[in-house]
Specification:
- Helices cover 68% and strands 10% of the residues.
- By secondary structure, the chain is an alpha+beta fold.
């Protein structure tokens, strides 16, 4: 239609269609990411990217096939199917279980009414292998990435399009033309994603620097401020338990004054790493935040104060047993800890923070190296 009515070659409309789908993906991704971040809650950019990209790909494939599935032109969107496979497997790096891809292929054959065709089963098998190979090469930093990318894309397109040629009795000229169009689209998509990926990496670096402490590799005060705001509203609105731990490295200033600031940095890194590992072993959803020089906060959503006290003891013991070697000197580290649960008297997150901080202050004023719960 595009050629006969608008005098536009099908290849041109194919380019704009593919770029349009990808642009739609980026637009929805940016909107979904901004929406999640605006709620002041911890957000996984990768999870959002995978969810949005997979949804766009699946909807696009089935929507397009719905248009032509009962016609003699049901092969016309083959290139788009292959492009969307590369999009999900190579560019989004979505690791889908192989059996699930096979089930999706069977669903697609049922959708088209050709599940009893041997060629369709062969096509589905190759399609699954294509997906696996595309995913594997996307996760390895091999040399000549574009050459490998293009070789894999063409290597699977040749037999897949040959099966389509046999199934629909296409001419060799149509076969060659579709492969040429396909490789043009594959190359354009690679370049487009390289540009978009560069922009995404810049945004990711800005996000990391704004939310993560560069020294200890744990989240910073800005991330804590967003998280406690979200958890406070969630807890007060739904009457959900919320507890918090705040701890300070004992005599941290003396470490800096005695051994130097590099020694202090090493203490911070090892304490943060030890506590983060301890928390991960207990509950991977618990997050450690560095909120000051030697001060750290841990938020416990859905935890009672008694349950939090148990985890705080594990953290306390892990640090107590920590010996940090620096320039042939062994530095023993301890922490003072404050623990508290959200109270009906807390009108905002700052009230909650002050009460936990008061418990920490009590531990420090009464000899340090202890836990105060209140």
């Amino acid at each position: 239609m595009t050629w006969s009515v608008w005098l536009v070659p099908p290849m041109i409309t194919s380019i704009f269609f593919v770029l349009g789908v990808i642009t739609l993906y980026w637009s929805i991704l940016n909107w979904a990411t901004a929406k999640a971040e605006s709620q002041n809650r911890p957000v996984s950019i990768k999870s959002i990217r995978v969810a949005v990209g997979t949804t766009c790909a699946v909807v696009s494939v089935f929507a397009l096939q719905l248009i032509v599935r009962d016609s003699h032109l049901s092969w016309t969107f083959t290139n788009f199917q292959l492009i969307l496979l590369i999009f999900v497997a190579y560019f989004l790096q979505v690791r889908i279980p192989y059996w699930l891809i096979v089930l999706a292929g069977m669903a697609f054959m049922l959708f088209n009414g050709n599940i009893n065709q041997p060629l369709s089963w062969t096509y589905t098998g190759l399609f699954v292998i294509f997906y696996v190979v595309s995913y594997v090469q996307s996760t390895h930093l091999w040399r000549w990435p574009f050459t490998r990318y293009a070789t894999v894309a063409l290597g699977f397109a040749l037999p897949l399009w040959y099966l389509v040629k046999l199934r629909f009795n296409l001419s060799w000229s149509t076969y060659a033309e579709e492969l040429i169009n396909y490789m043009i689209l594959v190359s354009l998509m690679y370049g487009y994603f390289k540009i978009q990926d560069k922009d995404r990496r810049i945004k990711d670096r800005l996000f990391q620097s704004a939310n993560w402490d560069a020294l200890t590799k744990v989240q910073n005060f800005a991330a804590y401020d967003r998280a406690i705001g979200y958890e406070f509203r969630r807890s007060t609105a739904h009457d959900i338990d919320l507890s918090m731990v705040m701890f300070d490295i004992d005599h941290f200033k003396c470490v800096n004054d005695t051994y130097g600031h590099l020694a202090g940095d090493e203490v911070l890194k090892q304490v943060a790493g030890t506590v983060a590992s301890t928390l991960k072993a207990v509950d991977s959803k618990i997050v450690l935040y560095r909120t000051g020089g030697g001060e750290f906060n841990i938020i416990f959503p859905d935890y009672t104060v008694d349950k939090t006290r148990e985890v705080a003891q594990q953290v306390f013991d892990a640090v107590k047993n920590l010996t940090i070697s620096y320039n042939d000197v062994d530095i023993n580290v301890t922490i003072s800890v404050g623990v508290s649960a959200l109270s009906v008297k807390d009108s905002n997150p700052l009230d909650f923070y002050k009460r936990v901080d008061a418990n920490l202050y009590h531990s420090k004023q009464n000899g340090r190296q202890q836990i105060t719960v209140g």
